[in-house]
């Protein structure tokens, strides 16, 4: 099947299929005489696996590791579980930080009278006139993000939404 059909069958956009090929998550498809990509059922199965892992917000490297383990019939399920539990911890940490941001913004919104005047604590908070740290719950020592920004690990290489 061509890339459009593979996209429809797998639920992964053609653009993402090409991206996954370019980074090696999916082997380059065979080509028909016409030059069009030709995908088989194994390719669709792999794309669906990648899509589901992406839907759970696994990083590209985690998906690469899961694909390697998926292909290894002698794998240890302990390795798979370790990847999953590490990801659960990352998701919980991210959720905690999202809640902190929501609380900070909620605090600023409560402080804003919304009466049509130009004074706005939300704008002042965004420009740095108001300290946002007091808006969020206190952090546990050693677990917070430096200056409340980032996660200290650099950017995640998560696949784009499909």
What does this structure look like?
With 162 residues, the protein is an all-alpha fold. It has two domains: 3-71, Multidrug-efflux Transporter Regulator, Chain: A, Domain 2 (Orthogonal Bundle); 77-148. Helix content is 53%, strand content 2%. The chain contains six helices and two strands, in the order H-H-E-E-H-H-H-H. The chain has a two-stranded antiparallel ribbon. A hairpin with a 5-residue loop joins strand 1 (30-31) and strand 2. It is elongated.
List keywords for this structure.
162 residues, mainly alpha, Multidrug-efflux Transporter Regulator, Chain: A, Domain 2, 2 domains, 6 helices, 2 strands, elongated, disordered C terminus
Structural class: mainly alpha
* Number of E strands: 2
Mean pLDDT: 84
Termini Cα gap: 19 Å
Task: Work out the helix count.
Answer: 6
Main sheet strand line-up: 1-2
| Count of separate structural domains | 2
Tell me the layout of helices and strands.
Layout: H1 3-10, H2 14-22, E1 30-31, E2 37-38, H3 41-55, H4 60-71, H5 77-111, H6 121-127
Antiparallel strand pairs: 1-2
């Amino acid at each position: 099947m061509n890339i459009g059909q593979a996209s429809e069958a797998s639920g992964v956009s053609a653009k993402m299929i090409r991206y996954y090929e370019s980074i090696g998550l999916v082997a380059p498809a065979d080509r028909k005489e016409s030059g069009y990509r030709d995908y088989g059922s194994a390719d669709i199965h792999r794309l669906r696996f990648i899509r589901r892992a992406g839907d759970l917000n696994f990083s590209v490297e985690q998906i690469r590791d899961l694909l390697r383990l998926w292909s290894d019939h002698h794998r240890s399920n302990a390795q798979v579980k370790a990847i999953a539990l590490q990801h659960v911890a990352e998701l919980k940490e991210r959720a905690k930080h999202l809640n902190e941001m929501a609380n900070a913004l909620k605090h600023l919104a409560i402080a804003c009278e919304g009466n049509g005047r130009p004074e706005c604590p939300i704008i002042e908070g965004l420009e740095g006139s108001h300290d946002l740290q007091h808006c969020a719950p206190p952090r546990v020592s050693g677990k917070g993000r430096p200056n409340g920004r980032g996660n200290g690990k650099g950017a995640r290489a998560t696949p784009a939404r499909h």
